[in-house]
Amino acid sequence: MNLASLCRLLALAALWGGSFLFMRIAAPAWGAVPTAFVRVVLGAAGLLALLALVRLRPAFGGKLGAALVLGAINSGVPFLMFALAAQVLPAGYSAILNATTPLMGVVIGALAFGERITPARVGGVLLGMAGVAVLAQAGPVALTAPVVGGIAACLLATACYGLAGFLTRRWITQRGGLDSRLVALGSQWGAVLALAPFALWEAARQPVATWLQAGPTVWGAMLALGLLCTSFAYVLYFRLIADVGPVKALTVTFLIPLFGVAWGWLVLGEVATLAHAAGGVLIALALWLVLWPAASPAPAPTPSAAGR
Questions:
Q1: How far is CA 24 from the centre of its chain?
Q2: In the chain, how many domains are there?
Q3: 203 vs 23, which has greater pLDDT?
Q4: Residue 301 belongs to some domain of the structure
Q5: Where would I find the EamA domain in this sequence (predicted)?
């Protein structure tokens, strides 16, 4: 990985780690639904502006419906779940729990999509579960019912991320593919449509005027969450995939918890404890087992391969 790609990787990890900080600022003030809804609206608007800037025509080739449904699964539900968790969990907790996404992918792939599950992946899932348990039991936050609910919300979000990866392959990739920026745009608008009924219901209970009265700190957090951590982060992520491939791009998952805990400690004064370190290390080891490619014997060279 060259220096430019490494800088993009670190910037992406800092942005996605920072998303948990911004949700921790906004969600207690606004509530979970407004936080998630405004985030996807800003994210969709930012991506639409990007497409206009690069003059990319939004031609979905019959895959718009799939992209919209993927948005509900890959953005709408997870963003709402993380916003719910942000009302009760420190930012560092949510960032560490977010790292279970590849583990959820292993379980969902084996149960629903016929994916081969290796002993290393089984070990990774078990280690990841142990990491979550350590964080829950030994962390600085008392294990109350709301905290358990927040942890469950984070795990539901990562399960949605894991499911969306397989559905993207089935609905988009195996049907001829689609420009990743269009997938991102369609998914964000799908999330807007999925969350709109909840936002309308929330607006009936809590008039939108009260959202507009939020202080500059909350609005700054929301703008950063929607434009930086969603729109701009997508641009970095897809550029990283193009430059270094999806497997190396996934190593951002290892760095997000580090930034999430660090931002919470620096900005919000959240306590960083040995439980964060122990839970994070166990989940990092689990990710290594899941993401590390299995060794396979090198194929015999063929004339066509030898000429490359």
A1: 15
A2: 1
A3: 23
A4: no
A5: 9-135, 150-291
